Amino acid sequence: MTETVGGSSKKTATRNGAGDKRLTVNRVYTTEGVHPYDEVTWERRDVVMTNWRDGSINFEQRGVEFPDFWSVNATNIVTSKYFRGAVGTPQREHSLRQLIDRVVKTYTEAGVKHGYFAADEDAQVFEHELTWMLLHQVFSFNSPVWFNVGTSSPQQVSACFILAVDDTMESILNWYREEGLIFKGGSGAGLNLSRIRSSKELLSSGGTASGPVSFMRGADASAGTIKSGGATRRAAKMVVLDVDHPDVEEFIETKAREEDKVRALRDAGFDMDLGGKDIVSVQYQNANNSVRVSDEFMHAYENGGRFGLRARQTGEVIETVDAKALFRKLAQAAWECADPGIQYDGTINDWHTTPESGRITASNPCSEYMHLDNSSCNLASLNLMKFLQDDGLFNAELFAKSVELVITAMEISISFADFPTEPIAETTRKFRQLGIGYANLGALLMATGHAYDSEGGRALAAAITSLMQATAYKRSAELAGVVGPYEGYARNAEAHQRVIRKHSAANDMLRTYHANDAAVQKVATRTWQDCIRIGARNGWRNAQASVLAPTGTIGLMMDCDTTGIEPDLALVKFKKLVGGGSMQIVNQTVPRALKVLGYQAEQIEAIVEYIGEHGHVVDAPGLRPEHYEVFDCAMGDRSIAPMGHVRMMAAVQPFISGAISKTVNMPESATVEDVEGIYYQGWKLGLKALAIYRDNCKVGQPLSAGKAAKASAEAKTETVVEYRPVRKRLPKKRPSQTVSFTVGGAEGYLHAGSYPDDGLGEIFVKLGKQGSTLAGVMDAFSMSISVGLQYGIPLEFYVSKFQNLRFEPAGMTDDPDVRIATSVLDYLFRRLALDYLPFEKRAQLGIFTADERTAQVAQDYGSGDVDLEGLRTSVDATSTKAAAEVEEKKKPQQDVKVGSSTELLELHLGTTADAPLCMTCGTKMRPAGSCYLCEGCGSTSGCS
């Protein structure tokens, strides 16, 4: 797409001793004389986003303009998150054209200003090509670009930051300050605390040091405060400690001990649900923790030896520990609460391009960006499905040309970008770290007939990643010939060239299995040869080129079925409709995969219909069992084994400058030994970082496996008592009330009878004409609910199940406390909750009276402390701020069968206590890499 040519008559000053070459840009996607906007059909849409709990509107903008092929979900997310200006004002963006132009024109102007292009014509082609690719969802920049570029705000383009802290009080307090500034901007940061002396060492005054874990408390409280103050996303942070730090055992057990506290307090009756009023007493919950293990430690673990813990200032060994016992403690803690993760220091620094400028000691919160302290990285991700041709072949040449253009744009952005601190600005401008990556790998593998956990699938993923990295570094070498290599290159030239050769050698070692991966690897091999040749002459413009980020929000913006390196979440999902509501559909990747596997149209139709009904492929009519693995997903009846995730990460890691944001999901039945094995295999397979999550290991899990329970079980054999429900009938004469209501024009009456000692005991609903089907169904429904109440089923259980059900009649009501209902049942159970449930339980369900909502607004905004930036962007300031919105976690039954994505997500995600509620719309988030993603509005808990 682009190439370097000799200097033109319009020479500009170059930096770092670069020559007078400039870039020429060739057209690939666009046609000369035709603007990309003129090639698509535009349409007007209304974006109205509601809170999933109570149906209240938290964002509304009507008449926005988007291409007709953009999904409703992508439209909603881009409009609510990325359009700038206050809603209802002329300054508010209302078209995707305005958004893309704001960003692309800024990049193009900066490219011209800093001497990247050979001529004005090249700048115009660059602008059109970038516009076409963004318009057609071929790639996307990370969220800070869409938030900030081209606005009056600081031009922050990076989502990933690494900080540094030294063993002084001034440095520790500055750490709190810098982290707060980054959180305020909606980004996350990571750092290594290993320079801080341990609690087993002395201060110069003679006293004993506090140790890094104690200072983590202050940082954790700061992150929690800023998060709850109305930031656009949850505060995201990473805390790393080296395995040879004397306080490493305390660090390992920190969050596991807090989980024990949560369980004890919950059993004592305190509100310890996510967002509960008592959860703030729990510490260390606002960070991901990781232990940085060395090769020396891992060899000691392998050999059953002892390992020395070293003083921070002198480096002398002050204590020795059993390596196996320490590694088991690490696995035990991760088994109990999913923290800490693990980072492999030897591998990380063996692939380090600038070791003469300092070691890599930490990562960003999602663990994909790893480089020097006080640095940052801007991200962009390509949509891999856009390069899959109708004949089933991956278009490697087009992919390489696209990478060239994207990496050029990312490099230009550093020339005009702003940064939260001066040390970060200085390091980033010296080393110019970039993080190109991709999304939709899981969908691509399925569409090409590959199982995610298969040799063929890993070969294709590795070949594509190798080509991406080779092309990015080749373009970086060409840019070095235009504007010079990065400032720190001369000092690190030998090391950088060594790492490039390691990438190339890993490519040569790839074993291919099919025409697709063989073709891609062939192009990659040629590109690596060019990269090494050009780099030897020019050096490289960027110290790093690639990462694999979660791609949460931007993945939804590009209408990707899967994010980052992840497999498909489920085979069925919900598609939002233009007129409102949604419909359940089978992922479009499924029929494409079936066609590739050789099935006929009639067979495909039958299999798709079966999947839509059952949510999985097991026993689907006509589907051969050997093809089941192609449709394995992250969860469900045929979920991918934990080592399947690890092997995929290992396949692509040799072709990534940074690391991979991904959490390895493990079943609840996994053992501590399983976790230990996963962490060990991660080191053996050459990963840089790894994190696990065992189902139901967080808050709310019964303490049946606790030491006290075990001791009790060993001491005596308990008598098994079988409990049967007993019906508590209402007396002949009981208090009752009748409520008349109107929902969407339909009139009805709700009769509710209570026990004399309080508590709802029966309901009767009159709706429709006597003798009609509707009236009969409502009578039967009422009797069923009444009998259930009398057998002791809590009212709040019924409310949680029936609120937000959507069917006609729906709409406005005549009840001031429930203004909008999504159905008659939604209204009825909200009304019953308001009349019969205490405030604490209603708060958990997100149901409040009009007066309570008014009081909440007054409490949040009455002091005049209004989030002006949130009002300006109309994202956070309009959010409903209800306290404690998560349902009580329930342990899923092992034999539960699910038939839709709704039931699947509720079973595996809706009951996961540490999956946060979206801070914008209140929807339960789902994992995306090492972070969380809201599919309702696109908010993420980390990089995007």
Automatic annotation (TrEMBL):
Keywords: Cobalamin, Cobalt, Disulfide bond, DNA synthesis, Nucleotide-binding, Oxidoreductase
SUPFAM superfamilies: PFL-like glycyl radical enzymes
UniProt superkingdom: Bacteria
GO molecular function: cobalamin binding; cobalt ion binding; nucleotide binding; ribonucleoside-diphosphate reductase activity, thioredoxin disulfide as acceptor
Reactions catalysed: a 2'-deoxyribonucleoside 5'-diphosphate + [thioredoxin]-disulfide + H2O = a ribonucleoside 5'-diphosphate + [thioredoxin]-dithiol
Residues covered by the TSCPD domain: 731-835
Enzyme Commission number: 1.17.4.1
Keyword Disulfide bond part of the UniProt annotation: yes
Boundaries of every Ribonucleotide reductase large subunit C-terminal domain copy: 158-693
TM ranges: none
Residues covered by the Ribonucleotide reductase class II vitamin B12-dependent N-terminal domain: 47-137
Gene3D superfamilies assigned to the protein according to its UniProt record, in alphabetical order: 3.20.70.20
Cofactor(s) required for function per UniProt: adenosylcob(III)alamin
InterPro entries associated with the record: RdRp_reductase_class-2, RNR_2_N, RNR_lg_C, RNR_NrdJ/NrdZ, TSCPD_dom
Biological process terms in GO annotation: DNA biosynthetic process
Protein task: Catalyzes the reduction of ribonucleotides to deoxyribonucleotides. May function to provide a pool of deoxyribonucleotide precursors for DNA repair during oxygen limitation and/or for immediate growth after restoration of oxygen.
PANTHER family: RIBONUCLEOSIDE-DIPHOSPHATE REDUCTASE (PTHR43371:SF1), VITAMIN B12-DEPENDENT RIBONUCLEOTIDE REDUCTASE (PTHR43371)
NCBIfam families xref list: NrdJ_Z (TIGR02504), PRK06556.1 (NF005122)
Family stated for the protein in its record: Belongs to the ribonucleoside diphosphate reductase class-2 family.
Name of this chain's protein: Vitamin B12-dependent ribonucleotide reductase
